[in-house]
Hints:
Elements: E1 2-6, E2 9-13, H1 19-31, H2 36-54, H3 67-77, H4 82-100, H5 153-161, H6 166-178, H7 182-186, E3 193-194, E4 199-203, E5 209-213, H8 216-229, H9 254-262, H10 275-288, H11 293-300, H12 305-309, H13 316-339
Antiparallel strand pairs: 1-2, 3-4, 4-5
Helix pairs in contact: 1-2, 2-4, 6-8, 6-10
Amino acid sequence: MRVVVNGGEHVLVATDGADADANRFLDVVRARGLSPRTVRAYAFDLVRFYRWLGTTTKQLDGLVAADLIDFIADQQRGSAAPRSINRRLTTVRLFFRFQTGRELDEGALGILRPAPHYKGPGRDHALGLHRLSRRVRKIRVKEPRLLIEPLTPEQVRSFLRSLRRYRDLAIVHLMLLCGLRSREILDLETADVVWADVRLRVRGKGQRDRALPLPDLLARILRDYLRVERPAKTDTPRLFLVLQGRRRGQPMTSAGLRNLFRHRRRRPALAAANAHRFRHTFGADMARAGVRLPILQRMMGHADLKTTLQYIELSLIDVADEYKRAISTIEGRYRRARRS
């Protein structure tokens, strides 16, 4: 089984006819209005699942929760990241429910059952206002807690100095001052810049649109880009276009956006300056400035509050700064004690 692009859509192709059920599942995913990137992810997850299923004597409708342990082991042998494995497990569960009409996790492993004295998940850790309901225990891989450091002011300034086009400056500032994702930037249209209201309309993940204020600096850069660089003869409403070569005037692609960062990240000092790191820096800066959590969640376009909470976590730089301030006071106290 493999993934092919047919008419702009990702579909599965197999010689044994197993692709029919999988493609019906993907059709339902599209009908729900999920993005083409989500459909693509589901398609590749199903390919990996069917390849694993082909190495066993199991059938889809006969799977039980314990079989997921074997699937996890197979993915780990292929060096898949824990987050990728958990996403594939979710795809398998959804596909199993689509095909059989029942949950794969019913009758889960005994090791997943809570101890007799377990009182439940307690209250919401972020707000603590309400009790959390018990969830169905599902087999998952523990994901390591990664601390992503925001860029330093020196790194940001160095990166900005390397840019030579208004278009590229606008793209980076949209990440740094508005927290936009790469895909959100590429999907922007000229009409999304509402000059009269000084705001920006953003098409977010999961069709969750949001509006953001347009900073003065970014507004000036966008005006210069539209006045000087953006090709006038184009039939696309997209805001950011290719500026040179045979594709001049066509919408900027994901590969083109990656190249903007890839060439500059070859410098050791800017090795961490990828697109998402600029968005992360925006979230960290907003949190440090005291922006309330629900407001930050809205600005970032997060569906889950837990995703926003990662920007509240202190970075190593924050910890070091606080430590230095505290240790100077503590050292002074003990020096006075020695003198007396």
